[in-house]
């Protein structure tokens, strides 16, 4: 199975999200995707989640949460839990996205609690890992990724986990990581994952993936797909991007 995940971040308001969801199910590509083994999933804002779910539920496109809180229910003003997202139709949840780590100060400890909440709620986890420019400049990438993956200690991992390798310096910058480098980091990640599971966990690449470069990653043997931000938020771009892999 290969994956194309679209992280809509906070780029789209409710109306724009609903309109993109309609465009996705009206797209000719949708019929093709029904025939091939690719998991297309989108991650709308929490505000638009249910409306987008209603539109996509009869299609083969899955839906996931961009963020969640670790508690299941209760006095947590402003938060939405894994359980609530599951009830509302989510298949996946992004956990540890760099924008959560660096803008909202999410630590490994918080990330682990969110992972546990996803497991308790039967949501598949998309754990995002990746180094900052500074870590890269200091040649500490491997050490850093090991640290980020250590949140998987003592977990029951089966088909409930996907890793997204997203170097922070490549996200939203247009500076996509070189494919040979992605392949070698994914090898390292897969090696490290052996400490935690015997399963072959899919590893995706994310960071300035677009309609012009997707094939470079799609063709990599060890890369199971892509997590796309900006280029997934416009139907023309997303269609072109998907077109690349089927033509
Ligand atoms: P980008 O974002 O494709 O806009 O670089 C990727 C992501 O944050 O998942």
Sequence-ordered SSE layout with sheet pairings:
Blueprint: E1 2-7, H1 14-26, H2 28-35, E2 38-43, H3 49-56, E3 62-65, H4 82-87, E4 92-95, H5 98-103, H6 108-120, E5 124-129, H7 133-137, H8 141-149, E6 161-165, H9 179-193, E7 203-206, H10 214-218, E8 225-228, H11 235-246
Helix pairs in contact: 1-3, 8-9
Bound molecules: 2-phosphoglycolic acid.
Q: Short description, anyone?
A:
The chain is of the alpha/beta class and 247 residues long.
Query: Largest beta sheet: what is the strand line-up?
Result: 1-2-3-4-5-6-7-8
Shape verdict: globular
Number of helices: 11
Percentage of residues in DSSP E strands: 15-25%
Ions, cofactors and other ligands present here are: 2-phosphoglycolic acid
**How would you state the average pLDDT, rounded?**
96
What is the alpha-carbon Rg in Å?
Answer: 17 Å
> Largest beta sheet, briefly?
8 strands, parallel, barrel
Low-pLDDT windows of residues = none
Order of helices and strands: EHHEHEHEHHEHHEHEHEH
Overview of the structural elements:
Helix content is 40%, strand content 16%. β7, α10 and β8 form a beta-alpha-beta unit. It is of the alpha/beta class and 247 residues long. The mean pLDDT is 96. An eight-stranded parallel beta barrel has the order 1-2-3-4-5-6-7-8, surrounded by four helices. The structure holds 2-phosphoglycolic acid. The site of 2-phosphoglycolic acid has 13 residues, from β8.
